[in-house]
Design a protein that fits this description.
The structure is a homodimer.
Chain A lengths: L1 E6 L3 E5 L5 H7 L18 E6 L9 H6 L2 H5 L2 E3 L11 E4 L7 H14 L5 E8 L7 H8 L4 E2 L1 H10 L6 E8 L2 E6 L5 E7 L3 E8 L5 E8 L9 H11 L2 H22 L6 E8 L1 H8 L19 E4 L12 E4 L9 H10 L8 E5 L4 E7 L2 E7 L20 E7 L5 E5 L7 E2 L1 H13 L18 E3 L5 E6 L10 E4 H24 L9 E5 L1 H5 L2 H7 L10 E5 L1 H11 L1 H13 L1 E2 L8 H8 L9
Parallel strand pairs in A: 1-5, 7-9, 10-13, 13-15, 16-25, 18-27, 19-21, 25-26
Antiparallel strand pairs in A: 1-2, 3-4, 3-5, 6-8, 8-9, 10-11, 11-12, 14-15, 16-17, 17-18, 19-20, 22-23, 23-24
């Protein structure tokens, strides 16, 4: 065994030869970013070996491709490619930019520490050799005055030998004793079921610590990339197959998390799952017929607590599955989890929460009142419907700066020749074109300025050349077309319309809003300055913006660890007034007004 | 189809050609005795055809053997042998002696009619074509303000088509909606799990009517005839096999009851099972280790409500199993059910309940206080340990009268040459010997009186000849030995000791007791006059004795049909103080005093 220390925390963890530093770090609860999941594509899991570099495998060609020469010179490595090869002490520095947790953890910190009261509890008791009366009465009188359920009685009757003193661990869930163990460290599993990605957290319910973070692609992707095509499938073929896919994914994640931490699946007593309403219905095998048609009625919005095994989740036989409440057909429990993770409900002043995606959910809060809406912002921000748009994988330009002279500087994932642009890069670019005057307020490219990069395409529409084919990996120019700009404008207008209508509902002026919480992956990578410039975010002071990353996952963990926060979530969900944007009379007017670039923008 | 009317109730029921009158009667809820279950052995299921005898199959040779010539001359038939052969109206008279229900029904009558409030309820609702908000909220607002469980939500999501008005039946269990059906008649199944026999009742939970009574031998008999040998098996091999046996028996009974009444197993939403503590533990797969050793600690005494499928019962997937509370290791929920069936808890005056068996349970009640005990009366009353004792099957003498001249007159089951005597016949005989002076107070046969029937056996002990070998079916004399009398004395002394100690605990004098409830099969067939004469029952006025038959089954049905009575049962069970006879200082003295015949006995 080797001891690996992670800096600057100084966290020490045991590791074995052959393990990668990424695996070890995750086991230690160090939340290293790794969108590519150890495939050396994204270059995000950088670390620096401080002590014991000769105990780590040599620099790989992968790393040379993905890391910039500057980072390589500074001694950075990809933790997914650093295997332990020798049994010597190792010390590793994890920079802030490699941590997904940087933002999230600070949010969690506030919330968790004071409110750690998990529903699952463990109570130790010594059963004396001789007892009178019924066994369960004796045990309750020595420990907690709670009732045993049948499973716990069966275990008690097996474990409690006649005439022998016995140490028992009682596992309780709310007012019930659900299991009797000879020893046990009760665990919980929080899972954020995204349409694309499923992220799970294995949590020690006694310490509150996250033991392991695991993720996988949502295998329902076999039935369609987006929610709409999966709904189509479910309507035709029934929801069962979709349920089986997500359940098997969750089971795999639980197994992986337990395996990597040396935990026993038997010790997992509760699973908390959040997701959008469609994911929620699929997971519970609720036919989503009505979710496909206006007014998008869910079967239920109530929080549900069921036996985990009743939906096929394999954990302890008595494990429960808690599904936090939903808000509407297009606002799911992931948004409730976002709210809990940000602690938004306790903000004294007005606050706004936005989770940008193909559907963007928005919540506005003031004086204890909540309004929420969902808006079909479309997939432009994920790179779709943009001529050279792509997902954030190797070869994607993920950041662009437009110079005053009309030239550009950009960064590519993997530090290779570019293949396209991520949605956040496109937002950077549109913002840059506007601030440099290459694009006017209405979004039209200015063909009269002196830059070679603005040109007319063969159908006589203007376009902006980001990179010429000599320098791209695709043998053609990477450009931003006038149509692409229009797509971005429509997407941001949809979001701003939602925000504006909600703010008007609660009479919140942007100057009153003390916080803009930006949840979700896209928002995490999006430059908030660019977002403000194009008017995707309102004109709010940068210091008031909190980028909270995967707040849904953090909120799910919070609800797993805290009965209080679970109750808070249920109360907040009941309070939230859902606004159906399409039914709002001023929708059309607001939308048209939100298309141009904003007049003023204080950076 | 034929219409069969049963008299004197005048109950009319449809029947098919080929059905036996016993089957038809049971379907009609006419509770005809049939210990042999349609095998034409017991001769108990007698009926008289009033109208339409030519529509019934001819007299069989079975009937000629089993029925007395007197009954045959009066036109009695065995209902199990009367098949419907022609489609004509039929009218059948069911005499009181053919009805197990005679006693039980009168008890049930009082209890059920005013307190019929089953836990399972059905609520009809019409879901409009178009709904806003969540489906479950809409349905609740139109019907009952109860929460849907996951299964009900899944059903609701499947049944409720978009844009179509729909009639739904909601099935509720306590505060929860557990199922959604398009139409359904919710049923329940009450079962009395005896060590030897399992009796089940299929009940319509909307009307409260018993649709079918079914019974079978407890298949655990493969692991031992009595509780002690089955406990032995469970201690060595584990309780699982014993659980599986009883569950498969219950499943078979549910199927049979549903098949014979054209009901659907899917419609069974609750099962209530009563039994002694060992049967209770076996059914729930609770290891009975401690039940085998003093102080006979059960794992629990609490009432339990679990998913029926969690123990393997096959009914509706959401069906519940309710297990009423226990009182002690040797006093089970069958005794609680006895109390509920007799309504003893509401008697204004003192009352006694006794359920005679290998273990006899006794409950004494006064001023709202209850005491109970169990006493090992042994199997003498079931015919075991008696030289010519036997169970109540064909060839058993079941009633004996001793004449003043020392001669005897007796009745044999099946009206054949006798093979032995039932326990109740032995009690008759001992009582007769005492009242005619052939036996003295101490139980000694009087060899000085002038009857040929008292003689010395080859080991020079006196014995009484009941029948000489010329008239028996076994080629030898049927006798009652001095040792047999002693067995009966020990058995009845055990019971009386229990009663006396309990009565002293509550300071109940026998003159105060307003009721003696006699529950169970043995007590049903026992002549209460004989029982009083030998001192098995205390010296209580005959009019105060209530022979309640299978009160445990009736009590189980009562708890199935009434939430109120279920609550009453739980409260009563908590109130009952268990008395461990062996730990009572006066036990030995009381026991010795109870062995002789009583001084006085007012008949």
């Amino acid at each position: 065994m080797v001891i690996v220390s992670f800096m600057p925390e100084g966290k020490r963890v045991e590791a074995k030869i052959g393990e990668s530093l990424l695996e070890v770090a995750r086991r230690a609860g160090i939340d290293i970013i790794g969108p590519c999941n150890g495939k050396a594509l994204c270059g995000k899991c950088m670390v620096k070996i401080i002590v014991g570099s000769d105990s780590i495998s040599d620099l790989t060609s992968d790393e040379k491709i993905v890391l910039s020469s500057k980072k390589l010179n500074e001694g950075y490595r990809l933790s997914c490619r650093c295997k332990i090869v020798r049994e010597n002490a190792i010390s590793v520095f994890v920079p802030g930019e490699s941590r997904l947790g940087e933002y999230v953890v600070s949010v969690e910190g506030e919330v968790f520490e004071e409110r750690f009261d998990s529903v699952v509890q463990k109570v130790n008791v010594t059963l004396p050799a001789k007892v009178w009366g019924a066994l369960d009465e004796v045990v309750s009188s020595l420990s907690v005055p709670k009732r045993f359920n049948l499973h716990a009685l069966q275990k008690l009757s097996r474990i409690a030998d006649v005439g022998i003193e016995k140490k028992l661990s009682l596992i309780t869930y709310n007012d019930e004793i659900i299991d009797v163990r000879e020893n046990c460290r009760p665990l919980g599993f929080a899972v954020d079921v995204g349409t694309t990605k499923v992220v799970g957290y294995l949590v020690d319910l006694m310490s509150g610590k996250t033991l392991s973070t695991v993720s996988d692609i949502n295998p329902q992707i076999a039935y369609g990339e987006d929610v709409v095509s999966r709904l189509d499938y479910a309507l035709k073929e029934g929801v069962k197959a979709l349920q089986e896919k997500i359940i098997s994914c969750i089971n795999k994640l639980i197994n992986t998390a337990c395996d990597t931490t040396g935990s026993d699946v038997e010790d997992v007593y509760e699973v908390v799952a959040v997701g959008n309403t469609v994911m929620h219905h699929f997971l519970l095998c609720l036919e989503p017929k009505r979710l496909a048609y206006f007014p998008y009625t869910p079967t239920t919005r109530e929080p549900l607590c069921v036996m985990a095994k009743s939906v096929g989740i394999r954990a302890n036989a008595e494990a429960r599955l808690f599904m936090p409440p939903l808000i509407a057909g297009y606002i799911g429990s992931d948004v409730v989890a976002d709210i809990i993770a940000t602690n938004m409900q306790e903000d004294a002043d007005a606050a706004i929460l936005v989770d940008v995606g193909t559907n963007t959910e928005i919540v506005v809060k003031k004086d204890g009142k909540f309004v929420a809406c969902s808006t079909a912002s479309g997939p432009a921000f994920e790179g779709a419907h943009i001529t050279y748009g792509m997902r954030a994988t190797i070869g994607a330009i993920y950041r662009i700066e437009v110079m005053a002279n009309g030239e550009v500087s950009y960064s590519v994932i993997g530090n290779v020749k570019p293949r396209g642009m991520t949605g956040s890069a496109v937002v950077d670019l549109v913002a840059g074109l506007f601030t440099t005057g290459l694009m006017d307020k209405s979004g039209r490219l200015n063909t009269n300025v002196g830059t070679r990069r603005i040109r007319m395409n063969d159908r006589n529409y203007p376009e902006f050349v980001v990179e010429y084919k000599e320098n791209t990996a695709i043998g053609e120019d990477i450009v931003l077309t006038q149509k692409d700009i229009r797509e971005i404008q429509l997407a941001k207008a949809a979001i701003r319309t939602g925000m504006n209508i909600l703010m008007k509902k609660l009479q919140v002026d942007v100057s009153e809003a003390e916080r803009l919480y930006v949840a979700g992956t896209f928002g995490f990578f999006l430059n908030p300055i660019s977002a403000k410039i194009i008017g995707l975010y309102p004109n709010i002071d940068l210091s008031k913006i909190r980028i909270v990353g995967n707040a849904a996952g953090a909120g799910a963990r919070a609800m797993l660890l805290s009965k209080t926060l679970r109750d808070v979530a249920c109360n907040v969900a009941k309070k939230i007034e859902y606004v159906e944007l399409a039914a709002e009379p001023e929708f059309q007017k607001e939308f048209l007004e939100a298309i141009p670039m904003p007049e003023t923008c204080a950076i």
